[in-house]
Amino acid sequence: MTTHRVVLLRHGESEWNAQRRWQGQGGEGLTARGRSQAALTAAYLARVEPEIVGIVHSDLSRVVQTAEPSLRALEVPVLEEPDWREIDVGTWSGKTHAQVERDEPEAYAAWRSGDDVRLGGGETDGELRSRIAAALETLTIKQPEGTVVVFTHGGPIRVAAAEVMALPGGGHRRLVGVGNCSATVVQRDEDCWRLVAYNERGHLAVEPSDAPHAFEGPHAFEGL
Questions:
Q1: Which residues form the catalytic set?
Q2: Packing angle between helix 61-73 and helix 32-48, nearest 10 degrees?
Q3: Residue-wise over 75-100: b if at least 16 C-beta within 10 A, else e?
Q4: d(C-alpha 149, C-alpha 164), whole Å
Q5: Which of 10, 3, 50, 1 is nearest to 198 (CA)?
Q6: pLDDT tens for each residue of 196-205
Q7: pLDDT digits over 65-74, tens only?
Q8: Is the model's pTM score more than 0.85?
Q9: How far apart are CA 73 and CA 152, in angstroms?
């Protein structure tokens, strides 16, 4: 018996996504394109997910703005949850990859090589994964059984997918980054989580060449 189904939605394109800057827990709001993506996502949820029992969202501005059209369209309980924030990248926030590599070459090289470094003095990937694993479990306590929509960020979605698939530490690096307003679905059947869908973007009608604005590579969190 399915007890909880969670639809993880990444925020729409932000100003810093478009400028290819690290965001972490900083950054600005959505671009016009991001607002359009948010509207398409709200229409998709209203059409395809009629049995939503609740919405949870990060408290960062780009996620709040993404969630707003869905909050208007869906009359369900809403919970703002800071645990679903993006990874804290400390001093890297607001910088391009080239700027980080110039300012902190050793730390940047270690990150590129796959080491679990403390990004800009903020969090490590492992700390993010532990935070998101706990947030998933909290959903099963705070939210009723059924489908819950979580508006969040690329990093949390990738580590959530790695967690439910029981990948080893750093396993999220094997997963492609998720696009803006993409949908990833995880489901808990009794005591077991499983991945149902990953990085679904059909509701956005994107072109094949429409890649997320971010550093491309196996170690990147798309659009930090």
A1: 11, 86
A2: 40
A3: ebeeeebeebbbbbbbbbbbbebeeb
A4: 17
A5: 10
A6: 999 999 999 8
A7: 999 999 999 9
A8: yes
A9: 18
